[in-house]
Amino acid sequence: MDYAAALLTKLPGASRRDLGLRDLLDTLEVYLPKEQVDMIMRAYTFAAAAHRGQTRKTGEPYISHPVAVAQDLADMRLDAQAIAAAILHDVVEDTAVSLADIEKDFGPDVAALVDGVSKLDQIEFHSRAEAQAESFRKMILAMIEDIRVILVKLADRLHNMQTLDAMPAAKKARIARETLDIYAPIANRLGINRFKVELEDLGFRYLYPFRYRVLNNALQRSRGSQKPFVKRISDEIEATLATEEIQGEVVGREKHLYSIYKKMAEKKRSLNEVVDVYGFRIVVEDVNTCYQVLGLVHSLYKPMPGRFKDYIAIPRVNGYQSLHTTLFGPNGLPLEVQIRTRDMHRVAESGVASHWQYKADEKSDATPQRRAREWLKNLAELQRSGTSEEFLESVKVDLFPDKIYVFTPTGDIMPLPKGSTTVDFAYAVHTDIGDRCVATKIDRNLVPLRTQLQNSQTVEIVTSRDAKPNPNWLTFVRTAKARTAIRHHMKTMRTSESTDLGRRLLDQSLKDLGSSVRKLGKVRMKTAIGELGLGSNDELFEQIGLGERLAPLAARFLMGADQAGKPGVGQASLVIAGTEGMVVSYARCCLPIPGDDVMGYLSSGRGVVIHRNQCGNLAIFRKQPEKWIAVGWEDEIDREFSSQISVDTRNKPGVLAEVASTIADNGSNIEQVSVLGRHEDCSVLSFVLQVRNRQHLAQIMRAVRKMSNVLRVSRDCA
Ligand code: MN
Asked: Are residues 604 and 647 in the same domain?
């Protein structure tokens, strides 16, 4: 018997309201054989019975939710097991049904998928907290086992976001933040654009309802007025393709809201600047035609120099491929054009999920499946060797890709995270090359190993057979691969070797501070060793030699007694004294500026992070005194720092503009403005500004405080 057809006729109230089942069935029948569709319909009957009587917060019967999740996956042509698991995904969690029941009726594969999704549900993400590392790790591990688990989970989250209105306000914000922090980046990393875009827009909408409304209204208005222009350009391009007898589809592309918002926030553009860019996509049959069409549009409109990107030759890390170019359209309006094949388009929309859709060419290493698999494999290796924190760091680097591309001397392209040094490059080529590197040439010029790489440089590593990794490299390497390899090497060294090495490194660092192990004297060494909770000098040397403790840091600590009172005395031209040879960054939580009392905290993988002494986050770190170094500002600092202030104002028209112009008049750039709160007659505005130092900030705050509509000004600190 045709189970599916029978089910539909039996469905209670099917004619009135089938809760999405009919659409789902229509989609499934296009690409799945009948037995599999029947199996999915059995899953539906099973889940509908289990959820009977339950409703969503929206008032809909609960079964409407798993059906919607299944529909999203069916649209991407996922296999029958994944669709069945999507329909059953909340059954174990929310009803009396057990996993064994599911296994009995639907087999071990579907049961394993349901189990994976249920387990993910139990993970609570506490964004930006330490617990995050462990949660994230579990999530990644689930992905490694079966990527379909995460696809179901993403579709689940998407539908929950689509129906978020019914939730209480506090919950909305938390879920929205988690969606932006965790789920959208994962969707992006897996190349599932259709999920990413919607997750981002919904996350933005619920996290920043006010900004969303303002931006959305403005965007609707401008889109209306742009329509004729977009049509005209599309027609012109289509006509040109036709004269060359090229089959191709031209569409005007709309940027999604969150990407517009991010562009405005990050690049500090006005809405008009961002929106007055017109996007077009041209989809053609094959790769050669892509380049041919590129030539055609370049002859139609003048290309903007430096804006052409060939993501066909160098796909993005998630497998995305396209040609990108920007043209000067009529009246000089910029036209952003993407040119790709149909296959590339499918990959651009569905990423890793396009695998199920069409059996992609597995030989090509550009397939998103292959890339996702490699990524996950690397993560699996990493999580065996690194700490939770390190693991998270590197996952984050992967999820928030800021890649640069450099070349090997033979012209191979090597993608690396932004901020990578030549040592990272060496390890990326091969662990042996990393272990034995002694010098580097960038574009044929010798440079120090710690040099950070820039896009499109050619990098050549000079190796020596006797060379060994230096634990001090840990202070500047960026990639987890390099860090893990260096640590690994250190661990295999004999104790005596590492003790020797550690002693030499420490002496070197002490010398930079005008001292040495001998000069410090036995008494100071002994106290310091005690303070560090170590048994002997050798133990300290060994830790340094093994790369577990950084030499410059230990040197600072040993000097502590006579340095503490006057940090940074006598150091030349550095912004932060006491951090020689280390990567320095400024904590986003407390935004320190010159003149603030600060401390340096050694963060794994990030070098030294400078915090203000009164930063609320310090409490957690205080338990590890060995990770602190005394630091101070240099006298002459020639750069600007971010700082954040809150301004309480009366609700008068134009107040925001007045405050902003006062800030600008006092020589500061505004990086970001947000409205933190709006009450009946007053508002709280928050500004992130660029200032030179405390005096500069104080001057700005004084000027703002004097304004007639300003009630209160304060500097923010976490
Ligand atoms: Mn669910």
From this structure: no
Exposed/middle/buried for residue 344 (C-beta within 10 Å: 0-12, 13-18, 19+): buried
Contacts of residue 296, defined as CB under 8 A and 6 or more positions apart, other chains included, come to: 240, 241, 244, 246
CA of 87 to the centre of ligand 1 (A): 9
Let me know whether 29 and 178 are in one domain: yes
Our answer to whether residue 94 is catalytic in this structure is yes
Residue 361 placed within a domain: no
Q: At residue 478, what is the residue type?
A: R
Say whether both 654 and 672 belong to one domain.
Answer: yes
Residues 500 and 482 in one domain: no
Boundary (domain end) residue, out of 192, 209, 226: 209
What is the whole-number distance in angstroms between the Cα of residue 394 and the centre of ligand 1? 29
Residue 433 belongs to a domain:
yes
* Cα-to-centroid distance, 567 and ligand 1 (Å): 55
Catalytic, 165? Answer no
Q: Are 580 and 606 in contact (CB under 8 A)?
A: no
User: Which of 151-165, 435-449, 608-622 shows the highest mean pLDDT?
Assistant: 151-165
pTM over 0.90: no
**What's the domain count of the chain?**
6
Q: Is residue 383 part of a domain?
A: no
Identify which has the larger pLDDT, 556 or 635.
Answer: 556
- What are the E-state strand segments in 616-699? 628-630, 632-633, 641-650, 670-678, 682-691
- Nearest Cα residue to 366 out of 417, 311, 309, 324: 311
Q: Are 59 and 201 part of one and the same domain?
A: yes
Residue pLDDT, tens place only, 349-361: 887 777 655 444 4
Distance between CA atoms of residues 174 and 206, nearest Å? 9
Is there a single domain that holds both residue 46 and residue 160? yes
Judge whether 176 lies within some domain: yes
pLDDT above 50 for 568: no
CA of 153 to the centre of ligand 1 (A): 8
Residue type, 710: V
pLDDT exceeds 60 at position 400: no
Q: Quote the domain boundaries for residue 623.
A: 572-633
Residue 27 Cα to ligand 1 midpoint, Å, equals: 21
Q: Give the active site residue among 23, 75, 94, 658.
A: 94
Residue 616's CB: how many other CB atoms inside 10 A?
12
Q: Which of 351, 269, 281, 267 is nearest to 323 (CA)?
A: 281
**Ligand 1 centroid vs 388 CA: distance in angstroms?**
28
Catalytic one among 2, 29, 93, 665?
93
Compute, in angstroms, the gap from residue 520 CA to the centroid of ligand 1: 63
